[in-house]
Protein 1
Amino acid sequence: MNVRHSLDAGPPHAATVMARAQESPTIFSLQVRLDDPVAQAAYRFAPGQFNMLYLYGVGEVPISIMSDPEERDVIGHAIRAQGRVTHGLAALQPGDRVGLRGPFGRGWPLQEVSGCDIVLVTGGLGCAPVVSVIHYVLRRRERFAKLVIIQGVRHAEDLIWREQYDRWAKLPDTQVLVAASEGAAYWPWHVGRVTDLFGLANFDPECAVAMMCGPEGMMRTTAETLLARGLPESRLYLSMERNMQCAVGRCGHCQFGGNFVCRDGPVFNWGEVKTLLAHRGF
Amino acid sequence: MFAQPDRAGFLPLAQLPALVARLMALGYQCLGPVVEQGAVVMRALESPDDLPRGLQAEQAPGHYRLTSDPHKRYFAWANGPQAIKPLTFAPQESLWRVERDDAGGLQFAAVTPPVARQAIIGVRACDLAALALQDAHFLREGRRDPHYAQRREQLFLVAVQCAVPAATCFCASTGDGPTPTAGYDLALAELADGFVAAAGSDRGEAVLNALNLAPATAQQIEAARQQGQSAAAAQTRSLPSRNLRDSLMNQLEHPRWDDVAARCLACGNCTAVCPTCFCHAEADAPALDGATSRHERIWDSCFVEGHGHLHGFNVRPDIRTRYRQWLTHKLATWHDQFGRSGCVGCGRCIAWCPVGIDLTEEVAALTAGGPP
């Protein structure tokens, strides 16, 4: 579950934007490649880890890695244009330069869960850190049983990678359930809360592992529902977000109780964080 | 400092400048107590004779005033606002810089800070304990902070036993003072006619040997020991000596958090003067010509709004949650991270709080009725 890497507290490595795509009105993706070919060739990450992307003269932001871990040419990131740095990153075009440090943190426990049903529950852009899990599982399909992908968004237009969801839904032993709180014309999926879909999810609680990423309220509700369905706490994981500035457990902003989310997380077992998640303000 | 009393020497009062001169001769910039804006701070001494005598510091919640010591001692002042922290963990510094060429290419380079050999004269036991905690954070195995490490390695620490604690001091209850027990190069205990002096490192031993001191007598060593005991007994504040982790983490919705939030200004003074607080922000400082940018590390505080900032919302939007974050980190979850509390009993957060919030009082209120 632990993957540490040599790229460290800085300075970042220079990297070039190879491709940019607008995924939704506010979400865009950047495929970048480290300028040093040796560093690019040596770059490895585990699904669930993140990079610090640097925009020249403005600053750094932590961004989950959404590419396929087997992909060696580029490193993919899905980003919502929200603050100073991400609005600037949104304006980049292929050929533009950025800095990159990473990967950081603890990823999803994919080594430990062979043979299990995999249940992925995500909300909003929370799908980005688990897209690499989907790629990982699909490439090693024989090692896992059922794959259940549950994704919730606020507005129908927030759903990114719609064709991918359609494609995954057609795969054997793979179930895709999508909900939008507010639907739109031609919206083929459920309109309502993502937790409405759990009754339809087809997995064996005796032998399933759930991984969640999204708003904390959604993850709390999801956890309650899954635990009530008989999934043991030890097989419930979530990815957390906090203000990460150094990414190496030093600057203190991302502390959640005694954990530094950047270093001890961002992926946690539910039992590690459930007590504090019940309180607002940590 | 009296683990090896047979090896302690006695430094007569008149010879204190000789100790400073010796360190200067070894190439150390010597920092000692200097009065600046009405408070004792550590600044470079120009000459070995610059150490002030006869200063005391009267302290209370939200209160600090220099007064005079009738015995004209060198070290009768209880700690001022400045700990060792700014000398090892710089309040602001560049971590790396980046240059952009005409084609838009970026060249990154680490910034190596200039480092002077520094000796600090008059370090207190609480600050040595705090330094050990900062070491645990910044020199963590596998994640050594090079900037901190460089400054830390060259630091020579002359510790002094506290004889006159302030009313805000409670190091005896946290187990960190008033007599230094570890982490120094030299430790001194000031008596009427001189100092019992003990080495805590090879470097310290070498400096002490060069001074050709007579051995401290059994009476002198006993006088220093009693002085430490009296200073501990004179402390009027305390924290419970037990691990407060569970007591505090079981009170996360206690009404006292609202009560303290109504008084707290969220100014961050407590975190600035705290010798163990390590939070820092990272920010870019681009040059005006646009060709370069420096990536800066700047002290930050969990009382500042931006500390809990997350895309689109704030995880700690109010003072209640920020004060709770500070106190529960310092006294509770610090145990999970470093195996002990993050408070060394220096009392600075009490004296330098503009509204006089006293963490020992807050802890007492939060844990009242809890387990003994």
Protein 2
Amino acid sequence: MSSHTSPAIELRGTSKAFRTPSGALHTAVRDLDLTVGHGEFVAVVGPTGCGKSTTLTLVSGLEEPTEGDVLVAGEPVRGIASNVGFVFQQDAVFPWRSVLSNVMAGPRFRGVPKAEAKERAREWLARVGLSSFEDRYPHQLSGGQRKRVALASTFVNDPEILLMDEPFSALDVQTRALMSDELLELWAGTGACVVFVTHDLEESIALADKVVVMTAGPATVKEVFEIDLPRPRKVESVRLEPRFVEIYREIWSSLGEEVRITRERGAVDA
Amino acid sequence: MPETISATAVPAVGKTPGTERSRARARAARNRAILVQSTRALVLLGVLGLWEWLARASVIDPFNFSMPTKIWDQLKQWALHGTAQGSLWEQIWYTLYEALLGWGIGVVAGVVLGIAFGRIAFLADVLGPYIKVLNALPRIVLAPIFLIWFGLGPASKVASAVVLVFFPVFFNAFQGAREVDRNLVANSRILGASNRQVTLQVVIPSATSWIFTSLHVSFGFALIGAIVGEYIGATKGLGLLVSSSQGTFNAAGVYAAMVILAVVALLAEGLLTFLEKRLFRWKPAQPGEDR
């Protein structure tokens, strides 16, 4: 019932503080309000190390908020929900499993019979263009191919909520554009909502319906921008459009200030 | 004229030096391998020859230091006519049996407890100090106690092999379980893995390379445990062969038993390396090898 009326993700006054090894309390996220609608693609941009990733771990259920509420489909998050997918910044593929077995992992963990899991995995491998690589091990693949494996093993679980933590930041520029296009294509067929964390403003505008600018850490929402560029988009061509440049300038005037604050603090750690 | 000649000649000539060069390189590599092998053999021959000569010339006392030919005779005699305690093969089998059994038990216990300690922080916090104390003990002194507890049979040797094997395996498994990539664990939990699945399908596979490192070392420890146990008191085994040779001032016998032990240890090591290669097909080649 409530899942149709309430937004897909809602954070209300959420804060998260960590105990650092030295015993001090470090606030990563402070008083955060954020709403993500069904099927919406939201990009979160902010200065390096401001706590963007923490927001994702709160939504995924990997971490619990210190204060405030995190609601998914109107229900408070308790533990890891089954309808969430998470693509990490670093490679999180199983190095000892073949490509096919990696993509089968999710369904197998969830108790799907082997034959069916294999079929679904093959289907997604075909969609990311890795069908002929199913017997390879991750170390035999390129960075972009490993990312495709990660995408396939996330999408194979049919997530309604897709969390992505700077997924393409380790890739070279060309591969990155290619992967962004592929992500948009894959996403278009699913109806899932996406929260995409990045520090690359261009990437966020090219991909998202809504760009959320975070403040310098502890992170909270500074401003939200609607991106009215038409879909379907091609990442390489959309960034040449005049409207794109206009949006970019507008958001940068907001983001640039936070970046400057971070830089002045000397917080260059990731 | 010269133009056309070179145009037709270049592809033909261009190919030959390439294959020639790679052939020359292969030949050089082969020659070097032969050189290494033959020098290696020469070193062995030199050492054995020097030993033999020194002993025969009475520079070193042949009674105390023996000589290679005597050791060889001793080996032949044992192999063909058996030892004082029965056939040589039986002695080898006894020692191997004790070492393998002790190794197996020690490895299983070490891996299971190591992973459990690595995964369950409470267990590690409570029992950690005790494990450290036990590890600090020179465990070989337990061999006489085991002899009192379990008697002259194989059980006391198995027990000393177990205590020697357990700790290195345990610590490596523990470390392996602790150092699992946090991203990988987070990812598998998101993908839907239960705690049990994380342990069995993520932690254990990532800890295997840690565990395998300890398996190599620990088989040597298992042999030590078995031999020392036999040496202190036994009815059969290579350790007993050493101690009875020593008791009859038969230096050749002690060396001969050492030779047998070395061969056994090397064979076991070879088998383990083979298994490791099969198990770690997913691993990239060593850095430098793949380039």
Protein 3
Amino acid sequence: MHMADALVAPAVAGTMYVLSASAAGVSVKKVREENDPKKIPVMGVMGAFVFATQMLNFTIPGTGSSGHLCGGMMLSAILGPYAGFLTMIGVLLVQCLLFADGGLLALGCNIWNMAFYGCFVGALLIWRPIMKKGATRGKIILASILGCILTLQMGAFSVTIETLLSGVTELPFSVFVATMQPIHLAIGLVEGLITAAVLVFIHEARPELLWGVGESAEVKEGKLSLKGTVIALAVAAAICGGAISLFASSFPDGLEWSMEQVAGTTELEADGGVYDTAAGIQESTSLLPDYAFKNSESAVGTSFSGIVGALVVVGVMVGASYAFKFFKNKDSANAA
Amino acid sequence: MNLIHPLGKLLVCVLYILVVASFNKYDLQGMILMAVFPVFGFVAGELSFKEGVYRMRLILPLVLFVGIFNPFFDREILFYIAGTAKELSAGAEATGGIPVTGGLVSMLTLMLKGFYCVLSAYILIATTSIEEICYALRKLHIPKVIVMVILLIYRYFGLMGNEADRIATAYALRAPSQKGINYKAWGPLVGQWLLRSMDRAGVVYESMVLRGFRGEFWSKARGFKPSDMVYAIAWTVIFLAIRFGSGYFF
């Protein structure tokens, strides 16, 4: 489920960053309002727990694939949606920084796909309504399985949409969706069973640790009702869907958009002057001038000789880096 | 590399990833040029390339899955390797040579993007401690609670590892001839692991509060030295030059 940086275009990544940051802003405000210092170590432990469980991959029978826990439902069942969401951000940041699992640029997407659905949809639309009249073993199992399956399906669908809008794959939408959704259905089921097993144990051992159990009778004023929550989430989903498609369709590339603003075009092409001179230099210095190209003005804008030239630059850079290292070591030796 | 200001390293890393991700899917030469940063990082930081590649194992499957189909769906031939000098755009056909399709180029570009992004993140974390990264995050005004949770996750990870070790040892002693842990025991074992870790974390947190912890990890303030500035500006210029200028020079 973790998306890599290579799978997202900057415009899509930026949009998802904004959306995830908005949800994080609301969560930070809510956690501050709660002002419960005892929650902080629990957040740390739950984060470390989800972090550890995400490292354990389980095999999906009959597919040759494997999956790992997402942990959003478990976090929200113990910490609630806001603290759970912030904890999940912490987990994703640590994973991305320490294990390179999920990219820095794709972090906004990953937070949305794995934390938003699991924590907000899972907690507010599934866990709390089911637990409003108190928790039982059956209800916990039902909420865990239903929550994990639904939120993972939403997350997997978002991965598909974000990847396709980024334009990095030639996979048709139907093929991509038909691959992503069923495998995450199986992963969701296994995650639901594991989450249920842990939460049932906690319910039996320390029921007070579970969030949102039996609180419907005293739903405080100002809190959103189920209907209100559904409407708010639907509006949020519509806005984010619209925002992504707007950015993705109008501005497929943030840097190209900037170029268009500055130069009036997304193509850095020019006749005469520097362009011709550079072309002349290229022609005369090209190491491999005999390769034929289909279309020199295509979006590709590349050539095999260009690639070889780039490799030469990288080679020079390797030499320069070793020179840097050599002089650095020499300086250190002199200093010693 | 370790002496450079963490904020400078973090910003350069984020900018690098942003620029790498922004390349056109057919811009293979630009992508090759972008190797200069990881090459510099690995050589100057004296890092293990093997370890960096090892980190790829987590993200490689999805990138491979997404990219591997590109050659099948995008069969438009972009250029020929070792063909004749005839320009195909003029209508003439290339004789001989190996055709290179758009799908193949976009697959290679996508894989390079994934490869570079992971390597650059690895360079950042291998030359910067978690405390320094959190310090940089605070400088970027990331909320205190998020930064604190990151630090606690990092610290409690070891604590949870110790608890898991104890539980596994206790289980093995109680069930000496059993291979692995019975699936029926997974729920209670994991739940117990969680509760015991929470209790210990609570005690650790109370000790921290008693010793004056008020919700902020204090880090030694670091000024931005001229060398840090040069590092950040130089890489910014190089990245932008490659992004917008590679087509001019090759």
Protein 4
Amino acid sequence: MMNSFTFGQYIPGISLVHSLDPRTKLFFVVIMMAAIFAVNTLPGVLITALFTGIFIALTRVPLTIYFRGMRPLMVLVGITAAFQVFLIPGEVIWRWWVFSITDTGIEMGALMSYRLIMVFVLAQLLTLTTSPLQLTDGLEMVLGPLTRVGFPAHELAMIMTIALRFIPVFFEEGSKIILAQVSRGADFQGSWLKSARNLVAIMVPLFAQAFRRADDLALAMESRCYTGGEGRTQLHEITMSRTDYLVMAATAALVPFIFVLRT
Amino acid sequence: MIEVAGVSFSYPGLESPVLHDINLEIRPGEFLALLGRNGSGKSTFTRLLNGLLVPAAGDVIVDGYNTRDSSHRLRIRQQVGLLFSNPDNQLVAGIVEEDVAFGPENLGLPAAEIRERVRWALSVVGMEEYLKYPPHMLSGGQKQRVAIAGVLALGPSYMVLDEPTSMLDPRGREEVVRTLTKLNLEQGTAIIMVTHFVEEAAAADRVVVLDRGRVLVTGSPLEVLTRIDDLADWGLEAPEIALLCHELRKRGYSHFPMALDSRQVVDTIKQFPFKD
Amino acid sequence: MSIRFLKVGFRYARGLPWETEALKNINLEVRKNEILGIIGPTGSGKTTLLQLMNGIRHPSEGKVLIDDQDPAVLKGREITRLRQKVGLVFQSPEDQLFANSVYEDIAFGPKNLGVAGSELDNRVRWAMEVLDLGFEDLSRRRPQNLSGGQKRRVAIAGVLAIKPEYLVLDEPTAGLDPEGRKGLLKLIRKLREDLGMGVVMVSHRLQDIMSTCDRVVVLEKGEIRKTGTPREIMRSGQELIELGLHLPPINMVLHELKDVFPYLDTAALGPEEAAGEIDRAIRGL
């Protein structure tokens, strides 16, 4: 069930992109996403696509994995594109009943599809090549300066770590509870009202279990000398290498182009 | 040494105390098994030993530091590791090595030292090959051994375990008991293990039986676990091997030595003078 | 009337690279008025076998017939009705309790099947009585506030209240203390003796299986290796050890005495019998 859903999974590897500092990858992804939403001309699209394409090639992760991860999300892309195509006014090219397609519509539809696809591709580029822990460590360090103004960077990273740890546990737990209640005659094909009542029989034990786990986990963490982020060190200290700076510089160099390529 | 002196404890809102006037000394390097039926106060007791709970009356003193004094809290928790029964609920990180590193990271140790401790702790529990595994790919026994390594990486002198095997299958149970015995013998870590499997208590140096919040008896496993009739009163099951010895005595072998270990019973029977 | 497995195979993740064969060529009959025990090392397919018994999973090969009907070809209400014949109690079933009172939780199953009014009330009272749960004391209590053994029995009562003809239990005694375990095993025997139900239980505690079941199936790597009475199974101690099962310590002793007393029967169930057997062997009888 969950095995067929690959979006957001980490594929261990030794590629250049894998070995980059998570902060570099975060920087690259954020800049690229901004660029992709900023550009609205064909050259702009081509340059951002080329840049991302080079990066994808460097990850050494087979393209099929990117595609498989995105398959369920293509529905979203389709719906968004359809909205653009049919609803944007402009010179009408084709008309049938209340539907009409305009040239601007097609242009905007194509652009929006491109943007969405690229967002998914970039998100995958990050998660496919960065272990969840590196990612949280990276986030914690990037957001670190904000702790001075009261932003809970460490707590946020800790929450992410624990969430990632327990997702598989909850999947297993959830499917077991569903099977158990189904074998007590719970039925999810019947009326809405009945289904809702049966949902309670699944959600309540699932949450009860989660709270119990949270309770235990808090005790276990406290017993292992956890007192919050202050004074904590890391097993894997993340350090920027020369390649990291190079990649960051190249990414930064893209920024002026984006302004030029906007109309 | 952990000194438990005149300790009582009750949870807020419940009038009857969970523990009454407990007195016990836990020596460095000893293997202590704590037995008792459900609701006898065993779990509460474990949480008093590392200062997660503070006694209502009396004191718990760990190597000279009183658990009441919050300034010693970290030192005490580092000295007295605590492990729970559900391995899934105490692993923090999604990768084995990251989880074992959690404790040393909290102590603020340098990365090189953390790496060294992680490697060492995982090798003690025999899980060094699983460094990069996510916990959900491991069996129950393996998860519990990783959890033990996580506590071990703090470098404790005492390891307190609250029913560490109750959620495991026989193989997992054996793995965990073997790991603890090894830890006790080779590293000299004191083991304080709560269990309701009397067979596991046979491996200990000393057994303490709790009932309704009081210490009923302390003694060697052989002394305590062969008191067949008393065990039933305490809500415990006599070890099968002890029952076998008892039955043999009833059948006229009145000097048959009581034992807890099947090996020992086999040897005794084989050496019987009128065997042929 | 029985649950019959005809050449049943089961695969997880069919067609995917991590496809695994959990069961193969299982031929088995679960009868009424019988307690069938299933033993086998972890990962031998015990839980999958149980889940096939009431049709929440369907076999990849072969057929499972519940009283001659095949749940795999039924739909809608018919499958619910057939499933109702086989109550399935999962491992640690107390984790699935959800209602605010013991009464409501036990009533969940029968309500789903359309039972209402005084019949519903009767069912709940009956199930609680069978499982030794005092109605006056416990029916209004919150399940969360009960002891471990009581919670487990409430969860089983919730399955019993759908009035199944067969009850299938996955590790019913795991995690209970000795008192809770003994009490529950007694109740399981009562289900067969007083109600004539067909009971199937999986346990990794061989003592529990041997003291409770009429017939035992040994499963390994998804296949049935052995079927027999508890005594017949215990007599093949060496085989069980090789399969990675843990013999009760007493049978371990008997097993190891075999080289000095070749005619010793290693199948003794419990210390008293074992002592008698050793006594006989020593006296050369």
